[in-house]
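Our consortium's second objective concerns turning raw sequence data into structural hypotheses that experimental partners can test. To show how far this objective has progressed, the report includes one record in full. It was chosen at random from the queue rather than selected for favorable results. The single chain below, 211 residues long, was entered without modification.
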Amino acid sequence: MPRDTAPITAETLLMAYASGVFPMAESQDEPEIFWVDPKRRGVMPLDTFKMSRSLAKVIRQGRFEVTLDADFAATLAGCADRDETWINAEIADLYSLLHAAGHAHSLEVWAGGELAGGVYGVTLGAAFFGESMFSRQRDASKVALAYLVALLRARGFRLFDTQFLTPHLASLGGVEIPRAQYRAQLADALAGRAYWDGPVPGRDEVLALRD
């Protein structure tokens, strides 16, 4: 976003998501924001999540506690706490505003009372736009994604947008689709209704993703 243009608002951001684009910054210290509309979009199909035997074992062990919207600010900060990040101060402020308005949410993973990992994103209609995730302990981000997929499946979501496809997401069932196909899935999801609020999915509900 050029410096002489009007500032982005939370409402502008929601309109952008509904149009299929999302914001990024070149770095944490770069004040300008630009819009991204990938030719190939990363998505996580909710019916083909790949839970490995080792991940199922970790979930059964109960080493981690999972919460929803318990500490959005800390989750956002954890996602930005890396050598290279696209989350600058303005982006952090915008998602904090969206969280206050009920459109941005976090799923936290705790170990021994400490935040071990988490993921945050934006909801519109029956679409969840995954923004970023982080992990401070082995398997924490995989546990976060498993619980997130179980939640989205149970509460009527039709689209889990991951923006880009990383090897980590691909190992869990993420795929890339052409822009036109993404836009069709987005339109379908925006026409639907889903909800985020409610209890954390139970362990058995998450383990059922292996079936």
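The partners drew two points from this record. The mean pLDDT is 91. The CA atoms of residues 41 and 182 lie 7 Å apart. Both points have been shared with the crystallography group to help prioritize constructs.
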